[in-house]
Amino acid sequence: MWAYVLKRLLLMIPTLFGVLLLTFVVIQFVPGGPVDQYLAEARAGLGAGAEGGGSAYRGAQGVDPKRLEQIKALYGFDKPPHERFWQMLRQFARFDLGQSFFQNKPVAQLIWEKLPVSMSLGLWTFVISYAVAVPLGVAKAVRAGSRFDVVTSLIVLVAYAIPGFVLGVALLVVFGGQLQWFPLRGLVSDHWAELSWPARIVDYLWHITLPVLSMVLGSFAVTAMLTKNAFLEEIRKQYVLVARAKGLSERQVLWKHVLRNAMIPIVTGFPAAFIGAFFTGSLLIETLFSLDGLGLLSYESVIRRDYPVVMGTLFLFTLIGLLTKLVSDLCYVWVDPRVKFD
Description:
Keywords: Cell membrane, Membrane, Transmembrane, Transmembrane helix, Transport. This is Inner membrane ABC transporter permease protein YejB. By secondary structure, the chain is an all-alpha fold. It has 2 domains: about 10-95, no CATH class; about 105-335, MetI-like fold, CATH 1.10.3720. It is built from 16 helices and no strands. It has helices spanning about 1-30, 35-50, 65-75, 80-95, 105-140, 145-160, 165-180, 195-215, 220-235, 240-245, 250-260, 265, 270-280, 285-290, 295-305, 305-335. Helix 1 runs antiparallel to helix 16, helix 5 crosses helix 9 and helix 7 packs across helix 8. The longest helix has about 35 residues, at about 105-140. The radius of gyration is 26 Å and the shape is globular. About 25% of the residues are buried. Mean pLDDT is about 80; it is low at about 55-60.
């Protein structure tokens, strides 16, 4: 297995290189780079000064070539693309994610600042989804074909079909606007620092309820149906009939024998789901509830052409995704020793 792990780790290098190269090449053909945006903002400011009769009117006729070269050097665009690409790779090899063009902060610091919001959404969604989906899937498998199975399947599929942001709008209008049971924005209140710790916890849960509910309702459908199908497949196997013939209770058969085998596809997905919860960024949910997380950071970076943030977050999240995928594959061996990678 160690040879397999080493092989997978070595394969991550060309995979990372390919992802970064492809994204970097696409970026070169996207119009409106950081230099163009800087010049557009400068011209807009100079034009406003001209309307006001200010002395900035003369500068609105154009940008001095020397100043233009200084701007290009500031953003690193005075070098050819291949040099900028290799320089970026050398930075990433040292785990230096670079410096944001427009926020004047290291990319790693920006991610660290936005991470708590996305962690709050992701972890609560992960915990609640699995806490509801796994027992629901087991109950559906035990009662397969019954009215309970049909009704819950209908509810789960309808919840899965409703987009999270549509549900979020409805929750905001009803519970935030009309009934005013929950706040409309933010992760905590403005006076949160002045509250006692019990009051802080209540305030945090009060704010996080609607965003998490918007993300949870559609997220547990796949896990619930996967759990149901896995249990149904195991229940029909011969070892279950043998266990029942020995006089074991239905509870012992389900939770002692069936559960371990049926949970293999569920447990192996735990690492990816758990790590993904730390870096989950839902742009629409964060925008809707005014939550400044990773989703909003990524969107603003793309819109403003903040390339260091785009490439830095891409490198970090791709690396974490590859490592998490490796851990998920290794979990097959941990859960089912019959699996051999050779």
